[in-house]
Amino acid sequence: MKALGKGSLASILAAGLHIVRVVIFVAFAGLAIAAVMLPLGPALLELASRVEGVNVESDLVIEGGDYIRLVYYFVTFGVMLYIVNRLLEILRTLRFGSPFVKENAVRFRRVGYALLFGEAAKLFFGFFSLVSGAEIDVKIELIAWIGIAAVFVLAEVFHEGARMKEEQDLTV
């Protein structure tokens, strides 16, 4: 299987990431709607119970921990969506045969920063869950931090590769 061009491994990965992006976007949009509607739930039930002919016999109790967990998932899916979009931009350059461009080094750096933000948010929400009683399972995993370091190393490799490619292109 070839690495570049149409029908390549990069094209197959891009197709898979497009599907993943749609799934993540749908979940992200659903979480955004839930983040707006969740605090309004009790008020909407109260309004519905006042409408003649509507029987509402449910007490909806939304605790602060539920909302914190919802916002945690919203941030997590937002970070995933951002990362998938950057990876698709990188794969686009790979499919067209020129992956060593400065833009890809910047994209890898942005992926690294997004991963750092996601891990920092996880720690923040973990602390916040201890204070508020929300049930968020937060694990600090060494492999995630090693992966973040690897992404930053790849960013530097791509930066150097882009510099070398520019030098080679200028050589007559």
Polypeptide structure, described:
By secondary structure, this protein is mostly helical. It has one domain (9-170). Helix content is 76%, strand content 0%. It is built from five helices and no strands. α4 (102-132) packs antiparallel against α5 (142-170). The longest helix is centred in the middle third of the chain and has 32 residues, at 64-95. The protein is elongated, with a radius of gyration of 22 Å. It starts with 8 loop residues before the first helix and ends with a helix.
The proportion of strand residues reads under 5%
Secondary structure tally: strands: 0
Quaternary status: single chain
Structural category: mainly alpha
Secondary-structure element order, as H and E? HHHHH
In total, the number of domains comes to 1
Main beta sheet: strand number and arrangement?
Answer: none
Globular, elongated, flat, extended or rod-shaped: what is the shape? elongated
